[in-house]
Design a protein that fits this description.
This protein is mainly alpha-helical. It is 70% helix and 0% strand. It has nine helices and no strands.
Length: 254
């Protein structure tokens, strides 16, 4: 749905992704360098800070004022809030599109669009509710919450690997003259860059499932493998029982 809500999406969305990734990458790296220069010599004191967030301790050490550090932390928190709004908007549209195609339980309700606001309010509400429930996990178990955080990283890599592999298969099996090219094309660099991206994503996905210590205990163990595998099994079971009977495939409304 995000592409359906954007004019000239095949040009605007890739440009937006490229510009935002480049801009945020450069600014984020610059901020990281600044933090490293301002960090105290005893890094352990920063990691064991009472705030539980090392960057706040670095702010306090750099400006020497609790008020100044708080003000700088507020900027980061506001940025996170704005980013969360964007993520929820994107996720709710994806949920709505999938429900519209009959790929979810209660799809007829989730796919409804409010006539007054022209927004998928049910999809937005379900997305917000799922996020709230997942955030509550941290109250009961930091280990469980950490497993979901690792699952997000692995899922991002897995989704990219699937899409890139499908694109690579298309490039290798279809003559260039028969390809439906978009406004952007890499020509001879397309295949090697796609292969490199798949290898990098595979490596990132592999290491995202490992614990941070050599001999982890129950608290230090990374349960991403368990959660990721369980999610795959549930998805396969849901497809066999429900999805293959009701899912109609991508529907494009322009």
């Amino acid at each position: 749905m995000p592409t359906e809500e954007t004019r000239n999406a095949q040009t605007v969305i890739p440009l937006s992704m490229g510009v935002s990734t480049t801009l945020n990458g450069v600014l984020g790296f610059a901020m990281l360098i600044a933090l490293m220069f301002c960090a105290p010599a005893e890094i352990e004191s920063t990691l064991d800070s009472e705030t539980s967030y090392p960057f706040m301790s670095i702010y306090l050490h750099a400006v020497g004022s609790a008020a100044g550090a708080t003000g700088m932390a507020i900027v980061v928190i506001l940025t996170e809030i704005f980013a969360t709004v964007g993520v929820v908007a994107t996720a709710s549209r994806m949920l709505w599109a999938f429900a519209r195609e009959g790929g979810l339980p209660f799809s007829s309700y989730i796919a409804r669009v409010d006539e007054r606001t022209r927004l998928p309010l049910y999809a937005i509400g379900v997305t917000a509710l799922i996020n709230i429930l997942l955030a509550i996990i941290n109250i009961g178990s930091e280990v469980g919450f950490g497993a979901f955080i690792s699952l997000i990283v692995a899922s991002y890599y897995a989704s990219f690997i699937l899409s890139a592999a499908a694109m690579l298969h298309k490039r290798l099996t279809t003559p260039a003259s028969e390809m439906n090219w978009g406004p952007f094309r890499l020509y001879k660099w397309g295949v090697p860059l796609t292969v490199a991206a798949i290898l990098y994503s595979t490596l990132g996905m592999f290491f995202s499932m490992w614990p941070t210590t050599v001999s982890p205990d129950i608290e230090e163990m990374n349960y991403c493998v368990l959660v990721f595998g369980s999610t795959l099994l549930f998805s396969m079971g849901f497809w066999l029982v429900y999805g293959r009977k009701h899912y109609t495939g991508p529907i494009l409304e322009v």
